Prior knowledge:
53% of the residues lie in helices and 16% in strands. The protein has helices at 8-34, 70-100; strands at residues 36-40, 46-51, 56-61. The protein has a three-stranded antiparallel sheet with strand order 1-2-3. α1 runs antiparallel to α2 (70-100).
Amino acid sequence: xxxxxxxxxxxxxxxxxxxxxxxxxxxxxxxxxxxxxxxxxxxxxxxxxxxxxxxxxxxxxxxxxxxxxxxxxxxxxxxxxxxxxxxxxxxxxxxxxxxxxxxxxxxxx
Length: 109
């Protein structure tokens, strides 16, 4: 191919790959909103369900609150929410790896 000529095959491949990436991105975006992870506070008092997008969808108290100070309960909630944020990040990274595993950049890029 001489300078200034257009490589039609390369352009077609680039367009095909771009469309595939768009499709994979849409799958990833949907999965991030639907995949849920459940975590508990270290003391087992609080359970939090979070999506991979980081949205908390449920908070449950698994044990009795009577006999616990407000500081203890707040600490359990904070620990569970922090664990939920970490779990959401982990789930997002795992989904991203699984979704885009087969993607390879174009040669020469």
